[in-house]
Amino acid sequence: MNSKCEIYIPKNAKKGKIKYLCISAHADDTEIMAYHGIKKSLENENVEFNTVIVTDGAGSSRTGKYKNVTNEQMVKLRNAEQKAVADYAHYATVWFLNYESKHNRTAELISDLKEIIINLKPEVIYTHNICDSHKTHIMTVSAVVKALKEIKNIFLPEKFYGMETWRDLDWLAEKNKLIFDVSCNDGTDAKLLSMFESQTEGGKRYDLAAVARREANATFSASHQVDSYSKINYGMDLMPLVKDEIPMSLYAVGLIDGFVNEVISNLKPFENI
Prior knowledge:
- This protein has helices at 29-33, 35-43, 71-89, 107-120, 135-151, 188-194, 197-200, 206-219, 239-243, 248-267; strands spanning 6-8, 18-24, 47-55, 93-99, 124-128, 159-163, 178-181, 232-237.
- By secondary structure, it is an alpha/beta fold.
- The longest helix has 20 residues, at 248-267.
- The protein is globular and about 65 Å long.
C-alpha cells in the first residue's frame, strides 16, 4: 500500500461471510452512492460492508464556520467524519488512500486497489458510474476498472456496479437501468450523511439532496402502478468493461445510444398525428 494509506477498523466492526465493497473518490461519496450495500449489512448478519476512500478531500467546498479551515485541517476533519460514520453503521473496514484529488490514474493507485480487492475478495463492488460529471470520480472508476482487468484471472467480484453520485442515472434506457432498493423508514440514510458536518454545514446539503433524489427516483420510476419502493438508487452494470474489455468511452456511447433509441421509439408513433 502507498505510504499515506491508513486502514481503519471501526468500533464494533461487523464481519460477515458475504463482503460488499465501495470504492469512492471522497469521504461521503460512499454514503451517497452505496447505501444499498450499507443497508444490506445492517439488515443481514451474513453481510459485511467495506469502503475505500481514494482522495484526501482537501479541496472540499467550505463556508460558514468552515470557511477558514485549511486544506490540512479539512483532511483531518473529513477522515474523522468518515470514521464516525463507519463506527455508527458498523462497517468492517475503511481504507483511506489519501491521494490528492488531482492525482492521475497511476500504477501506485491501481496497485493499492488490486491488493485490497484480492485480499478482501468482495462479492459486490460499487463505484462511480462512467457517465459521472466529476473528473475525480471518473479517475476513480477508471482505476477500479484497470485494477480488475489486471487481476481478472485471479479474482473477480460477482457484481460490479457504477452508481449515481454527481449525475443522476434516471435517463438510462430501461434495459440498462439497474434498480437498487434503498427504502429506509428510520432515517439512518439521512443520519449518515448528516454526520459529515464539514459538508452539510459547510455549504453542501448532501443529507437532504441524496435522500430526496432517492425518493424522487422511486416516485417517478413507474407511471402506471403504485410505488413498489419508497427510495431507489439507480446504477449501471460495469462488468462488461472488465470481462469483455470494452473501452469506457465506447460503453458510455452504447448507453447514450440506448437512451436516444428509447426516446425515438416513443416519439415515432406520434410524429404524423
